[in-house]
Amino acid sequence: MLQNRLHVLTLFLFVCVSSLVSWPSASHGQNERVDDDPLYWMPASTLVYLKLEPIGSLLSHPLRTRIQADETIHALWKSEPLKELRGGIAVSELVLGAKLETLARDLTKFGAHLCINDQGEIVFLSRTRSARWLKDYIQKIVTLARGDNNKNKPGKVAETTYRGIRGYEVNKLIVAQKDDWLLVANKPEIAKATVDQMLDKNKESLDASPFYQRAKEFAERFDSNSNGSIATVYLDLDNIREAKAGWTKKIFSNKPREFVAELLFGGLLATLDKSPMAIGRLALNESGANMEILSPTQPGWFAGTREFYVGPNSKGVAEPTWKTPRGLASLSTYRNLSELWLRAGDLFDQKVNDQLAQVDNTLTTLFSGRDFGTDILGALEPQLQIVSASQFFPNALKPSIRLPSFALVGKLKEPDSMQRDLKRIFQSFVGFLNVAGAMEGQPQLDLESEIVEDAKIYWAEYVVEKDRKYENGLPVQFNFSPSVAFRGDRVVVSSTLALARQLISEIANPIANHDSSLTSPMLNTSVELDLAMIRDALLDNRDQLITQNMLEKGHSKKEAQGEVDVLLGLMQLLGSASGQLSFDEQVRLKIQVDLAGKESVQANLDKSSNGAEAR
Amino acid sequence: MSRTNQTIDWNAELESIDPELAWSPWEPSTKEPWSIDRSALLHRRAGFGANQDELKAAIKESPSACVDRLLGKKSQDSSIADTFEEESAILARGVLAGGDSRNLASWWLHRLLHSPSPTIEKLTLFWHGHFATGAEKVIDPELMLEQNRTLRRNALGSFRTMVQEISKDPAMLIYLDSVTNRKAHANENYARELMELFCLGEGNYTEQDVQQLARCFTGWEIRRKQFRFNPYQHDSGKKSILGFDNVDSGEEAIDCVVRHKATPQFIVRKLFKFFLCDEPEPADDFLAPLASAFVDSSFSVQAVVEKLLSSRLMLSGWPVGRKIRSPVDVALACLRGLQATTNLDALTKRLRPLGQSLFYPPNVKGWDGGRSWINSSTLIGRANLVHDMVRDENTRFGGKSLSQWCELQRIRSSEGWLAYLETTLLAKPLTDDARRTLLSEAESKNDRTSLLIQLCSLPQFHLS
Amino acid sequence: MKRRTFIQSASSAAGIAIGVQAPNGWVHAMAKELASSDNTSERILVVVQLTGGNDGLNTIVPHKHDAYKKARPKLKIDSNEVIALDEELGFHPSLGALVSMLEKQRLSVIQGVGYENPNRSHFESMDIWHSCKPRTSRNRSGWIGRLLSDAKGVETDDSLALHLGNEPIPLALVDRGVQVPSLSSVEQFRLKADRKQLKDQAARSMSPSPASNTISKESSDEDLMSFLSVSTDTALKASSRIEGMLSTPDENKDFPDSELGNKLRTISRLILAGLKTRIYYVTLDGFDTHANQLAVHAALLRQWSESLAAFHARLDRDGQADRVLVMTFSEFGRRVAENASLGTDHGAAAPMWLSGPKMKNILVGELPSLTQLVDGDLKYHTDFRAVYRSVVEDWVGWKGDGMGLGGYSLLPLFA
Question: Cβ of C299 and A357 within 8 Å?
């Protein structure tokens, strides 16, 4: 039956996914029998090696206990939209005769390993609970797969024996068992080679390969204070680039680079092009999960074309991020935009350059004839900050869609002359918006300015028409009050006056604002997200999300509400996320996602139920 | 010979049909029973199709009760209507909040799909094509939505009121440049279309009438999205229109136009073509009974529509296959016929290349309909529309997958499935040959979806 | 004229009943074509609109003129850079792809095209080029739209005109009662349903079903049904031809991967697939070069010329080069003098371009004087409506009466 096939797949999937988010046991590193280390069995030609810790430890991790104990999550799990998932799991468990949780625990009792070699062959090895348990388990899957095939097509589960070890081909995968080890491979060649090695141990293996030796050593540079590693991956970049097999070509094909991709990932791409290897690790700690990726790097790799990304000698450092009340996200990065703009000719193909020429023409026109690349971008220090905050609308008349505000903070090279220029450009921009808006019957902007101490703020606000009723709330434009503000050498371009004012006052007070313990001094880029605030911003637009869901999924109001509330409910779990990128002797990318604290989950819950009733 | 025994032959030429017979009310008889096929025809023309359960329920009530229900006259379970209106209002708010007229179509499609009185929606669509106004010029979604509500409110009401209200409708005023109609320089655009396209038809007025009528409308303006009369811009000189002397205000002028003898014929003809058949063009005499019903009821649209829908000509089955489905009809027939819901935003986009973007008629004349819907690209597009819609992951049938839904409908075989589809989706039955081919393919696959898609790619699927 | 009357007249004229209505001018043209019944010989017009106002002076460059050099100190293109045409004029260096067309005399530049009282607003001027009338509120119809209106009811199986692109349908293609399809990609011509038995079906369902329910009886009048069957059959054929084309692997190399390249590639596929559409309309935006013009204008001209060259070359490979004409225009040229931002502002007269079939002359009309300017702009000497009329009547072979351009005299353009 088709359903059975699905269950087998679900199980594999579950094992794989769970593995990725698993957690090490105390027995980490306790390999009683060194002979049994799969490092001796995996081929020396391995390009990708993934090491997984036992899933059991993940399942008993305090984080999971915390999630399970959460009443909201409990309620969500029982809710209507998740009914099908619940049913699917229940049936799988019935068919396999055990809880999926238990199965996963037993299957990876002593950890698991996966490798991909230069031919694109994959082998997965896992040391299970016991040889007997494994035999039963394989038998169950084979029976299921057979039942599946009998029904519709005359397919079969091929069965072979190689050197005394029995193997099955199920859904194009080869499944075999040696003692308490489960072996799954995608090609017979690698399955045989692995079995050979398990029996003979006479060929060169991954353990001896120079790549693995160097990578292992390099792995010591992982941030030492997160020791709860659950999965580690080693990538042999040198050979991945060289490999003849087609599968690597897709990753390193000479695609024309896109501007935004270059802006975001240019430095990483340069590393990927040159670096001999990369390693990554996923770990859990008390507050959440984190991922760390390391790769050796050299300033020379960026010289010229990609210096805009890392700065001279890779010494470009991002300033600490600005914090604002109600902040959703903040990003601070070292990036020399002017240089990127001017170097476009070297970085991009003809097509992208043609498009950029077009954009350059438009922007230069918009900026009253000042050359966009040299005059506008060139007037900024290579520092860029983007801040986003949720908005507070004190009046009864609110926009019906409530968007967060966002702002760019830059540092001017020559504040005096640029302030005047930017002010003028801003004025003509507002004028342009008014003329264009008037033709389409859109609301008009009212230009204002204020001077607070040594700061100047210019802004424009949409005018509420007196005798209009706005039965459906204010139009979406009322989320914006475009602003430009200056203090010292800083310029703030903000979508709202409120955010501009806040940032200006933060700028006046940098020391209180910047908690130096939070930011390491050598970061190239740092991103922080307040996931709880983002959820609040979404919750504020719950009606819109429901409308959207109704139109896009054809749902009734009730169904749409159910789905939206599940999404918002799941988001309650999350607290914050951050990402950090640095270039030193190695590229280091760290991403941490933290769960919401216990109290805040409860607080969010109250807020959401209040919010829901208020509507 | 008593008329009650007379029937209209299915393939009778229109010219040969006696108008009195054609427009007399149809009564079921042993020869012409109130059948599923008749009910299906009525649901296709008066609404957007129906599923088998609805068709079966319809023949348990009388034909006139069925018409009353479609018109929303019969008192229904008001909670259904309330839920529907509540959902529609939520969607309207959401669409307006976005401020983009292009999203209005999804709101309307929701109504077309879920309205418990589909004839009102169908007529609103008719009037949208008649008083065609395009959002590409009006831009403001609030005004487009307001006009749509005006059309719906008057859909079955008095045509006189309709014309008076639409003449002051801000979207219309913008679309036909009434806004620039000033004393010193009258803009004739609206005046001309009022006579040519909205009421009389070409040949029933002179250029003189256009100029005079335009003067009556001077000073009709919009302020803050509302109609406003500006006496300073109104040309209050003497005007005579269509033989009426001493006309001054726009309101009086509209009444002159509506009361012109050409109006009833013009409107009734268009309704006839919309509900009964694309071609041939009926003779004036043939439409005379409808036109006099229109005049006698002082321009009640409902009077004409009821007469059309419950007429012998309609329910004899003569109109079967004599109309080409509009793109909206194609999509809605599938959805309503199979109790389906779908991604309405995607549906809006899928309708565009087929030539029917709601709120964006091609020009002031609206959609021509009939054969003009069809060309190579729209035919492929129609087949692809059904394909994309049925295979869209968000399309559900009674909240289920198609195969689950078929199970619930106790459709167990491909024959049963094909029979269901023929009843609900096709105006004319398939040839035995066609049926065999479809089934031979379907049986090997046992795939409900692909049979449905195949069926909807056939030429006769486009007939209503 | 009533439909049925026409059937008779058309039948007698052409011997083929096409079941539609058409006015007289059209009837003759159509009847002639139908009689020949070889639909691959019908001539095709592709209109390419350069939106934003192309700088004609830097497209076909008067590089030797002092007035030009003086007016364009920073933007001028030097004599050693241009692709020289004669002593006086040269092509912008980005137009290299057109050289072979030039050598074969399959390219024509009509200089100094414009209209009386030039309007310098994009919207207004474009409106005039589309409607052929000064902008008043009532001319919401375009020249091609009116041409099709005149042909209204001539039901070829395929739409007579087709717009390709994501923008709203251009006014040129609009007229009341006319509905020109607007496609965003050729994918819309690919039938997604399994076509296996559909093709037989289209033919088979032409025969009416025997009486099998209480309503339908055997009928002699299957008008709409046979119309739909024939149309479906045609559509399926076109679709499968296009699908065949889409699977040809070398297609990609012919055309530059650019917006216009992709559009013209699609059109070449439709033409080669035997679609009976006669007029195609595409646009390329971005010519409003107020600032930093050199790079962006060069890029646009490269895109235009490479796409055009690839298009004609592709048709030539299948021996179809002689039946497809591309007409390129822009709503106005640009000011003779450059502005302070290394760009140019809205101007007036500019060249139009014809390419594809053998042309009578490469250069048509004189370069307008660079010194006797009107408000700083070139003065037109050829009305664009004369070009439209000549193209419609002398190239497409239709009577242009319906367009209302009778007052403009024909130009000798084609060899």
Answer: yes
Read off the pLDDT of each residue in B186-194 and give the average, rounded to a whole number.
88
Best residue of A1, A547, A555 to probe chain B, by most B CBs closer than 10 Å: A547
Of the pLDDT bands very low, low, confident and very high (cuts 50, 70, 90), residue C18 is very low
Distances (CA, A) of B336 to A289, B109, B339, B341, C3: 48, 12, 5, 8, 35
Q: Which ipTM was obtained for this model?
A: 0.92
Residue ranges and CATH numbers for the domains of chain C are 1-37 (no CATH), 44-188+251-403 (3.40.720)
Residue B335 distance to chain A (closest CA, Å): 11
Write out chain C residues lying below 8 Å of A354, CB-based. 258, 296, 299-300, 302-303
* pTM reported for the whole predicted model: 0.82
Residues in CB range of B407: below 8 A, 6 or more apart: none
Amino acid (1-letter code) at residue B81: A
What is the distance in angstroms between the Cα of B93 and the nearest Cα belonging to chain A? 6
Give the tens place of pLDDT for each residue, B373-392.
988 889 999 999 999 999 99
The residue extents of the domains of chain B are 176-320, 327-462
Question: CB B98 to CB A476 under 8 A?
Answer: yes
Residue A307 has pLDDT above 60, yes or no: yes
Give pLDDT, residue C362: 94
What average pLDDT does range B287-292 have in this prediction?
A: 96
**How do strand A122-127 and strand A181-185 relate by DSSP bridges?**
antiparallel
Which of C341, C342, C344 best tests the A interface by mutation, with the highest count of A CBs <10 A?
C341
**Count of B-C CB contacts under 8 Å:** 198
CB contact under 8 Å between A364 and C296, yes or no, is no
Neighbours of C389 (CB within 10 A): 23
**Selected residue with higher pLDDT from A96 and C203:** A96
List A447's β-bridge partners, or say none: A460
The shortest CB-CB distance from A551 to any of B106, B142, B395 is to: B106
Name the strand (E) or helix (H) holding A17. helix A2-20
- Cross-chain residue pair C158–B365, CB shorter than 8 Å: no
Which residues are CB-neighbours of B60 under 8 A, at least 6 positions away? none
Q: How far B51 CA lies from chain A's nearest CA (Å)?
A: 18
What integer is the mean pLDDT of C28-38? 40
Q: Is C340 exposed, middle or buried (0-12, 13-18, 19+ CB in 10 A)?
A: exposed
